Amino acid sequence: MSLELFLQSLVDGLLMGGVYGLVAIGLTIIFGVMKVINFAQGALMMLGMYVTYWLFALLGLNPYLSIPISAIVLFFIGVGIQKGILSKMMDAPEHNQLLVTLGIMLFVENFALVLFKPDFRSVNVDGMPTTLSLLSININTGKLIAFVFAIVLTIVLFWFLKHTFLGKAIRATSINRQGAALLGVNTNRINYIAFGLGAGLAAIAGSLITPFFYTSPDVGSAFILKAFVVVVLGGLGNVLGALIGGLVIGIAESLGGVFLPGSLKELMTYLIFILVLLFRPNGMFGGKVK
Amino acid sequence: MKRILVLIMMSVLLVIVGACSDSNVQGSDYESDGNSVKIGSIHPLSGGLAQEGQEMRDAIRLAIEEVNEAGGIKSLDGAKIELVESDHEGLAEKGVTEVQKLDSAKVVGIIGTYSSGVALPATQEAERSGIPFVVDIGSADEITERGFKYTFRMQPPATSFSKDFLTYFEEINKSTNTPLKTAVIVHEDSVFGSSIAKAINEQAEEYELEVLATLPHSAATADLSTTINKITSLKPDIVLSTTYLRDGVMLVEGLQNTKFTPKAIIGVANGAFSNASFITDEAAANQNLMDVNYTINPKSEEATKVKEAYLEKYNKHLGPNAAYSYMAAKVLIDAIERAGSTDRTAVMQALEETDYTDHILPQDTIKFDEKGQNINARAVLNQIFENESKVVYPEEYQEVEYVYPAN
């Protein structure tokens, strides 16, 4: 195997890992705060992609400029889901919550199918080259931007959780709900914000993916399973862990594809998943939102 | 509180059930007045293959509408055909339950399924219940290799695709001064892509084609960069590809973003290269891609009429998949007409005697062998020119001259 192939695969894996991390960050926040496993995360990401697609198709808006819009729209959809459905389920057994988010996923996907038809839709960014070349290595521009965003977003979130009052309240709620409530944190409100934030982050991921991946109602399924693995890998509720977990999976998959024959690269993700569950059940970094 | 919870659960369950069975037992436009014959359609109407599935379902609707408007089934006093539509979502296990549902809906025959992975268990279930099953699209050889009496297939099977590809390759390779020698096979890793790749691998040597590598991938993958990296490092003359739509587009676009340009990209039964939305997609600058695939006979006048009717009714182009579904419906209805009965065994026996000449496919009459395979079915070589896919080989169906090597 040539060095060039190795480096190229490493770069591709790193970039794709950033994308996986991006999708997983929203999921990890929702889990960290609410202890709800949100199956609908991929479907919410898909809605974010459609917001971006339609703004592009109807108004010609650059997909990167539609990020705040899709984030805000999905934030409110997220708050709505939490207020309308999940808040009534917070005391129910966990498997019931699981069923509800699964139901929301099925509903949203099929709703999109009826509304938008199953057609594959793509977005082209005017004037943006699809690839950059660096020392004979090709870098997909869309993925590079998503990767950079993933890092920036992780840092911003990390800072937000650490240094703002709201962030501290979110962390307090995630560590000890009753304790936080006793100290005057409105934990119901925190739940709305956390789910809204998770949905908004899914939308940002969606908007960043549209320039290089086809939008269709079932697009979430290509990412959601990986996102779950990434979340567990990084430690449930750990934002920084989600990014690093994403990178690990991305690289493992990409290099696995080079070294292993056939479709075995798909195996890499789950192999790592099982190993982590066996030896570090709390994820690579353990713990909660830090 | 508990009651509210139960209520919510119930409504969510209803939504789930509703979403899943959205179009399960839905009648066609025609009112059932006691004098109707039900046939079933089982395609992926949701999920990753929904686009293809819905196109195919629409073609069956068109075929049925034509027959109904022309007076229905004459041997059954003008009985109208009623379509019972079902959705397998691309899931094998759903294929089985949907066949059971169609069975209890009392359909005379079933048309499906697009996905080989679903066709295998679905036809097995139909065989068990004794329901004639016309496979419109579903390429895995095994579908007609299990000695089933009730299974019939319109499409050429996988090994014949690879055989057709290799013969066409040999022929057109002779016509150029720069014959191509090496290839990399990229295929999706379900039974569809794997069986075609295996068949090409087994016979390639006889046709002086060297396969440098065989690269499978999951059709649902979010990323094909490893595959593309391997291709660019191997630098084959030809990239052979058997994929579905999304992964096919990812492959072509991914290759275009590298500095390496293969001398030809040839699809074998490729789900993307013959897809109407891919061919006309501006994003895929896809000049001169080739595809060995089942398609519509470009020289048939009947086909032109069907294409126009389809475009008018559904505002989209009739693709090869939809054309085969259309013909499958016509063949099944023809069998019911000749059987003069809604008895499933009688319809099965009539299907065995099918000899359908007035069709829209690039082949001789539609006839089934004892295994249920359409014996004259064949793939042709298509090439994409400026947003249109044209038949370039063999000569009897040729629309335009091929460009080879393409780059």
Question: Could you characterize what this model shows?
Answer:
- The complex is a heterodimer of chains A (290) and B (407).
- Chain A has one domain (3-112, 137-279): ABC transporter involved in vitamin B12 uptake, BtuC (Orthogonal Bundle).
- Chain A has 11 helices and 2 strands, in the order ααααββααααααα.
- Chain A has helices spanning 3-34, 41-59, 67-84, 94-116, 141-163, 165-175, 177-182, 187-209, 221-234, 239-259, 265-279; strands spanning 131-134, 137-140.
- A two-stranded antiparallel sheet of chain A has the order 1-2.
- In chain A, a hairpin with a 2-residue loop joins strand 1 and strand 2 (137-140).
- In chain A, helix 1 packs across helix 9 (221-234).
- Chain B is an alpha/beta fold.
- In chain B, 41% of the residues lie in helices and 16% in strands.
- Chain B contains 12 helices and 12 strands.
- Chain B has helices at residues 2-20, 50-69, 92-104, 116-129, 158-174, 191-203, 225-234, 245-256, 276-279, 301-314, 320-339, 344-352; strands at residues 36-43, 80-87, 109-112, 133-135, 151-153, 182-188, 210-217, 238-242, 264-268, 290-293, 380-385, 388-393.
- The longest helix of chain B has 20 residues, at 50-69.
- Chain B is globular and about 65 Å long.
- The relative contact order of chain B is 0.13.
- At the A-B interface, helix 1, helix 4, helix 9 and helix 10 of A face helix 1, helix 2, helix 7 and helix 8 of B.
